[in-house]
């Protein structure tokens, strides 16, 4: 049987594909741009859009499990096609589903949790990959400019998210579970900047912005007003789940969660001057 991965070219989707392949699974990857997917040759890449279920006929055929994202369109707007997608999956005999939690209840997640499939909800906190947003400034000025630099984050490696999804999709015992996925430590912006500095072999200075300065900076960068407001709210008052280490990752994977230090070493070239 085949495992279907939606959002397969995204930050987490690519990791889900990689982890499933490592387990010897057959993988079908759904993406809006099959020609630019850049996935391994053994992956069956199919084109399609979760916002347009009428174009997904046959996508669920022969599928035993599906990894679902809950957003579509601009600014990660929640998918409104959940009922139809779940109906198609159940009609095709899909047995298991993982749902990547996107920050709130969505029609798709609600439909999956009401379905007859063995579902698992994955609730990752801040992705370590979010630090790539600092890369241009660090390359240019060796500086990170952020508000609330003492804020705490139990950020999680995207590889761990993918590995947890692969476990839930291929092993028994995870039906009806919701897992909060974190890293093994709680870090400030200063901690993250120091890890990046060690990884690239050059210092990184932290410049703390006032909330007003951050707002104007993000607006100038073209961020939508609702995104700016959301970031200021979350950074200024991080939910307890986002700043508390959870043991779900080591329980699921049988090994410690990956540290930000490891992530920084893996991505050191992104923060090194001269990268395109």
Automatic annotation (TrEMBL):
All residue ranges annotated as the NAD(P)-binding domain in the record: 7-97
Protein name (Swiss-Prot/TrEMBL): NAD(P)H-binding protein
Pfam families named among the record's database cross-references: NAD_binding_10
UniProt superkingdom: Bacteria
InterPro entries: Ergot_Alk_Oxidoreductase, NAD(P)-bd_dom, NAD(P)-bd_dom_sf
Matches recorded under Gene3D superfamilies: NAD(P)-binding Rossmann-like Domain, UDP-galactose 4-epimerase, domain 1
């Amino acid at each position: 049987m085949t495992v279907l991965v939606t959002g397969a070219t995204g930050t987490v989707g690519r990791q889900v594909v990689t982890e499933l392949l490592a387990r010897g699974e057959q993988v079908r990857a759904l993406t809006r741009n099959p020609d630019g997917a850049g996935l391994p040759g053994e992956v069956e890449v199919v084109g399609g859009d979760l916002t347009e279920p009428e174009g997904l006929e046959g996508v669920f055929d022969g599928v035993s499990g599906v990894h679902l994202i809950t957003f579509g369109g601009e600014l990660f707007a929640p998918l409104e096609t959940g009922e139809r997608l779940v109906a198609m999956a159940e009609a095709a005999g899909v047995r298991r589903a993982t749902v990547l939690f996107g920050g709130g209840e969505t029609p798709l997640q609600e439909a999956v949790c009401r379905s007859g499939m063995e579902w698992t909800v994955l609730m990752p906190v801040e992705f370590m990959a979010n630090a790539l947003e600092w890369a241009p400034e660090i390359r240019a000025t060796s500086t990170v400019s952020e508000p609330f630099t003492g804020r705490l984050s139990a950020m999680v490696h995207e590889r761990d998210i993918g590995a947890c999804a692969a476990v839930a999709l291929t092993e028994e015992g995870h039906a009806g579970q919701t897992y909060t996925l974190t890293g093994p430590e709680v870090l400030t912006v200063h901690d993250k900047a120091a890890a990046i500095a060690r990884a690239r072999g050059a210092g990184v200075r932290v410049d703390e912005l006032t909330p007003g300065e951050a707002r104007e900076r993000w607006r100038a960068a073209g961020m939508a007003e609702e995104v700016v407001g959301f970031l200021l709210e979350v950074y200024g008052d991080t939910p307890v789940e986002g700043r508390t280490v959870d043991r779900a990752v080591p329980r699921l994977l049988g090994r410690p969660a990956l540290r930000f230090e490891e992530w920084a070493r893996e991505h050191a070239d992104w923060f090194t001057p001269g990268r395109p």
